Amino acid sequence: MVQKYNKDTEQKILAVGNELFMEQGYYATSTRQIAKAAGITQPNLYHYFKDKETLYVAVIEKLLTEVGEDLSGILQQHLDFQQSLEAMANYLMTTHYFDLNRMLQDLAKYITPVTRYQIFSLWKENYRQPFEDLFQRYGHEMRSQISPELAARHFFFVLSPYITQKEQAIDEGLSSQTIVDLFLHGIIES
C-alpha cells in the first residue's frame, strides 16, 4: 500500500518528536511512542522519516532554524550592545526548555559522528552565529584579544545552565539582565 504524503502529518510527527526527545532524551524515546502520540502507525512514521536518528535530526534542525531566525530578529531591533545580549539571553532562557546536558550526552553516546557534526554545524549557525554577529558588531567595545567567536563560546558556557527545562533550572531567580551584567562587567568594582 502506497502512503500519501501529508504535510500536516509530518508537522505533527515533528512536534511530538520535539516534545518527547526534549522531555525524555533521544535514547528513552522510541519511534513507537512518537507514532502513538502523533496518532499514526509506526510504519506510517517511517514513511516520513526512515529511522529515529533521521527524525531526531529533523526535529533539531527545525528547532535550531526557528531559534536562529528569532535571534537574528532580535539583532535587527538595533538595541545597544547590552540590551541585545540581554534580549537574546532572555529569549533562550524563557523559550527553550530542554535538558542541554542530556542532549549533549545523547549526541555523544547514541548519535553517529556524521550526524553529530551535522547537528553541531546547525547549532553553530543558528545559536552561536547570531551571538558572534553581535560581538562582531560591538567588537570595538571588547578587549582587543577577545574574538567574537571566543566571546560567543564563553557566553554560552555561562548561559548554558540556564537553558534547561523549567523544572530543572539551576536558579530561576537569576535573570538574563544579571547574567549579562556579570558577563560584561564581572564582580569586581572598578
UniProtKB/TrEMBL annotation:
Organism listed in the record: Enterococcus alishanensis
Protein name (Swiss-Prot/TrEMBL): TetR/AcrR family transcriptional regulator
A Pfam family this chain is assigned to: TetR_N
UniProt keyword list: DNA-binding, Transcription, Transcription regulation
UniProt keyword Transcription, yes or no: yes
Domain of life: Bacteria
Domain HTH tetR-type: 7-67
Keyword DNA-binding set for record: yes
Annotated PANTHER family: HTH-TYPE TRANSCRIPTIONAL REGULATOR YJDC, TRANSCRIPTIONAL REGULATORY PROTEIN
Annotation: DNA-binding region: 30-49
